Amino acid sequence: MIKNSYIPIPVKVDKIRFETEDKLIKTFDLVFMDKEEEKAFRYYPGQFAELSILGKGESPIGIASSPTESGFLRFTVMKVGVVTTALHNFDEGAIMGVRGPLGNWYPIEEMKGKNVVIVGGGFAFTTLRSLLIYMLDKKNRKNYGEITCIYGARTPGLLCYRDELKEWEKRKDMSLYQCIDWKFGAEGPIEEAAVEGWEPINLKEPSKTKIKKDIKKFTAFVPQLVSAVKPGAKDSYAIVCGPPIMIKFTIPVLTELGFPPERIINSLENRMKCGIGKCGRCNIGPKYVCKDGPVFSLKELEKLPKEY
Amino acid sequence: MKDSLKNVKYIEKDKILDFIKVLQKDYTVIAPKKVKDFVLFGELKDNEEPYLDFLNSRQSPKEFYFPQTETIVEYEGIIDKRVPKFSENDMKKRIIFGIRPCDVKSTLILDKLFVNEDYIDDYYKRLRDNTLIFSFGCNNPKTTCFCASFECGPFSEEGSDAFITDIGDKFIIEGITEQGNKIIDKLPDGDGGMLKKKKEIKKNSDNVVSCIENIQKIPEKLRGMFENPVWEEISERCLGCGVCTYLCPTCHCFDIQDEMIGEDGRRVKNWDSCMFPIFTLHGSGHQPREFRFQRMRQRIMHKFNYYEENFNIIACSGCGRCVTECPVNIDVREILEKIKKL
Amino acid sequence: MEKIDKKIREIASKLLKEGKVKLIIGFEKGTLPLKARPTFVRKPEEVEKLIWSSLCENNLAVYIPFYRKQLDNAEKIGVIAKGCDTRSLILHIQENIAKREQIVIIGVPCEGMLDRKKIEREVTPGIITESTENDDSITVKGNGFEKTLKKKDFLCEDCIICSHRKPIVYDEIVDIEIKEPEGVDVLNKVNEFESKEPEERWKAFTEEVSRCIRCYACRNACPACYCNECFVDCSRPQWLGTTVDSETDLQLFQIIRTFHLAGRCVNCGSCSRACPMDIDISLLVSKLSTDAKQYFGYETGVDIEGKPVLNKYSEDDSNEGFFEER
After folding, report:
1. Is ipTM > 0.95 here?
2. Distance between A160 CA and the closest CA of chain B, angstroms
3. Quick check: B133 and B104 in contact, CB under 8 A?
4. Distance from A86 to chain C by nearest Cα, in Å?
5. What is the pLDDT of residues A153-187, one digit of tens each?
6. Residue B176's closest CA among B168, B166, B165, B167?
7. Over 70: is that where the pLDDT of B337 sits?
8. Facing A2 at nearest CB: one of B73, B122, B254
9. Alpha-carbon gap, residue B186 to B175, rounded angstroms
10. Does residue A131 share a domain with residue A58?
């Protein structure tokens, strides 16, 4: 059979688990029904796929597994629309479809020999997990310099991959900083710790915060934590993925730390259908998020109209 | 001179049905047909004559490569056990007979998007590969025709397998490709007089048809115009309907939808339009193109800048359908002239 | 016509200069022969582009819902309005889209608008390049022909049956004498279709809507269709399929839209004129207008003090519409 870009590849839902305490986010491990299809599905961290439920539609979701983990594809999905709701109603063993891999990926080749700073917020951490697992893989770790990961969510229970976070906390070959911000908002920021074990930082001038060596959990917004951690920009790439508001405030911090636009990497979202640059809806200027993205450097984004 | 006549055939006007019948032995023939008071392309039935006394069809014949609704896959059974069923039946080859040069040009424009090195749209490609084009010169270009702006024209042969000209009492048919020549081979040979007549008609049409000068400069001009206030001015009268995009021979945006009847379902490609707000509305409620001017800007930018940047060709062939059918007379020619002057 | 142009410009200029309105929606000359089009004037020096003719077919009330924010910011809008436009404006006021005092209505009595397609048909195969209008006739010229046509023979279908040509309400008026035609009624349009057998009607309707390409020009050209989310666009739940090869979906689209317009349609004919596939959409909607009139004595937008027919209840209301034997 000729490979037809619109036809989903059948997969089986192998494992399902709740990812967050609010039960709105679940992680699905999918396995291919056909070994040949599995072999043909070659992907890199940062790519996405259309999760396809016949009768409901498709939803473009970043691939959370890493190509270094074989045997399954992992997707972490929030319940928002028709397709994702149907997916959340599935039991293990369900048959569904996957179309992909689609889009471009994080510059894993270009970043070789460089330090990498991963900045993530909320459940947009999925493809960042893929990247982290990929770089931490035994075969790949030596190719990268220092790895710093800054990850935040509203509450501790809304952080994704909490078991893995615990392992990463212990690792010597990377630094993981986490933050939560849920006590902020209507009443304004608080200066003391929101939850035991989570340290406050200087919110007014976060860059003046002294980060103690063994404390890695804070009460802060992600941009403030980046400002406090002050990851070095020299020979470093910053990979930023999160809600638009987080990206908006993180980029100036990175720029001030000295990251040039070509080394600040973002992953974008837009309403998509075909995923292959035909259907015409996810464009930002002449670029299609599905085909030319979703990964863009700040330098590339600066050339595009602000229409996303 | 004699050599060049080898590919020129003719047919008496009252014999056109005979010729169609010959074609129908091996091909499905798609031709202009009268519907109410206008013309649409459709499949000719047995003994049905094409309606060739027309200026252009109300809708472009793009639906024969890019149907408004097209099934991608079918499926059945309960929701968590469905697998796609996809079968490709043998398809009878088709001839689009009497298509105007602007619409042929549009097909060539669409080819670049649907069949390229990034991805191939197999559905489009299959329909396209199985279709021959017998295009039809325009003796009477409309006042809204501006095909001459786009390396096209009322007698442009680009993309045709054979080219038809109405020279009064008869049609001459010139073979362009090998396949085209083979099909018309049995028709009687034309002569120099006929070609001379065609030349005169062509000359007249070329004189009549309008041309937007220096259209090639538009894409570059648009590059710096995203934030220009002119978009609000241009779009203020826009009602936000899909007439311009659905009649346009180069508009190609589509939606993918699933439909169930009982436990049987299908996934379809449907035309969609950038003029509809829902086109870009995120599941989260975020809307990158909230206002009419942003949607109008997208339509113009896509045709005259983005498409050119991606495929080196402007996505317009000057057929004028959007001009004549817009309920509030938004005129793309006027917009282009305005952009040029800014 | 020039007299009317002049008067409109005078009024518009005065309103803008005195700051009574921020924006005037009127008509300007179109880019095609036989076409005038909506235009938007914000400065007194721009009023010169305002015109009036028998080609001002659009119902300008359609634009009011686009300007709700501006209206809320106390930016008044002036609208050049024919009889049908004023009826739609009254509907908007009744339905709280706008307040009466937010809109300055510049009334222009109308003698019916011309149907461009009818005229083009008349001169086929000629291609019209210019037209000039006189009191009762219009002269069209083209490649080697010139023809003078009587306007009354080329009116839009819905203008033929219009019985409210004079603006119903106005703040300014272009004072010209016109006669409301006698003996015309929306019923005239519906009767013939209604007299057919049900199967025949259904067949004709199905055939007509089978050409629908779902461009929604009918909906978007309609002043009464201003829902934030149209039922055809809803995805949760999805009321309607999205394809064009399902007869049912095409039928349902027009039927549901028609019901949404019950007692709200002013029979301006914008839907039919906007349709690129020449589907006579207003025929179906007209039926509900005749029902509103027949059963409830109600006509949309003719009484600014009144309530829309579906918004009021009276013990004297006819129940026949529900229980009528057929």
Report:
1. no
2. 20
3. yes
4. 13
5. 988 889 999 999 999 999 999 999 999 886 654 45
6. B165
7. yes
8. B122
9. 12
10. no
